[in-house]
Amino acid sequence: MTTAAVSVPMPAVPRRRRAPADVTAAAPVIGTKKVLLAAPRGYCAGVDRAVVAVEKALEHYGPPVYVRKQIVHNVHVVSSLEAKGAVFVDETDEVPEGALVIFSAHGVSPAVISTAADRGLRTIDATCPLVTKVHREAVRFARDDFDILLIGHEGHEEVEGTAGEAPEHIQIVNGPQDVDAVQVRDPEKVIWLSQTTLSVDETMETVRLLKDRFPTLQDPPSDDICYATTNRQVAIKKIAPAADLVIVVGSANSSNSVRLVEVALEYGAKASYRVDFANEVDESWFEGVATVGVTSGASVPEVLVQDVLRLLADYGYQDVQEVVTAEEDLLFSLPKELRATLKQAGDASRALGGRGQRPVSS
Ligand code: SF4
What we know:
Elements: E1 4-7, E2 34-39, H1 45-61, E3 65-68, H2 75-84, E4 86-89, E5 100-103, H3 110-118, E6 122-125, H4 129-143, E7 147-151, H5 157-163, E8 170-173, E9 190-194, H6 200-213, H7 227-239, E10 245-249, H8 255-266, E11 272-275, E12 291-296, H9 302-314, E13 319-324, E14 326-327, E15 332-333, H10 336-344, E16 352-353, E17 358-359
Parallel strand pairs: 2-12, 2-13, 3-4, 3-5, 5-6, 7-8, 7-9, 10-11, 10-12
Antiparallel strand pairs: 1-13, 14-17, 15-16
Helix pairs in contact: 4-5, 7-8
Bound molecules: iron/sulfur cluster.
Iron/sulfur cluster (SF4) binds next to helix 1, helix 4 and helix 7.
């Protein structure tokens, strides 16, 4: 894949969250200070769709609108929606009978859907269509009596949802370290599926080890690690070798954001840190740093990245070059339950949401 470097205008010097450093007092910097800004970064189609779904539900039904789990894994997004009247709960038994509840982008198991139905809850399912695709694969291969090895992080909401589609057929493989312990009924009838937000490289290593043990292991019908996760990792792989420091904007429970830090370090960044907000950036990180890479996870609004860029400008990193490895223009329709309501209300403002991918050509 080819890349393009694009100079982007720097925003005006910001309102500050912290006092600017005395940049003249910092350790000497070899070379000109600059920022390499990854593209794609930030919101993916599934996150955009889920956030718009909550906003539209609040607009059309009025608060409170209950949301099971964080709609997407981002502190800023969750607190912004709370301020508008969304109420986040861990389980549907915290939702008053008959109230409206939205299922998050990470998906839910059939047991959660049936519990909500038993309690008479009205539901909007904001599960990302790319997560739903993995659920369907799980159902299909369980029906065909395969053992399904689900590569993913035990305890992550998405993995719980997918595993809940066929618990008797699915075992979770956290990574290469779990491979030796995997037991299957028939080595000729095994398939692997995965969480959508994993490290592509680590997942392929897990698959390689699984195939050493089960040579006829089947691959998923199409990639389970989604386009947004893959694209953001490709972009940071391009930047990392030239970066003294990579800052990833994203929350601690955002799997794809945490993976970006790991990938940056694996591909040569001298240091990499994840921050939720610009005011978490520590000025000691800039000592001796000429080139700063910046990216953000798939659940991160661009405004948070712009805050970081303004902070960097204060520290002398004013030359921002965008490194583009793909263009995204995919659109997902809003959840069907909401589309019907919007249609009735004559609201055509946002029948669709999200962005997808288009490789950059030379
Ligand atoms: S990261 Fe991928 S799977 Fe998750 S919401 Fe975004 S597009 Fe969907």
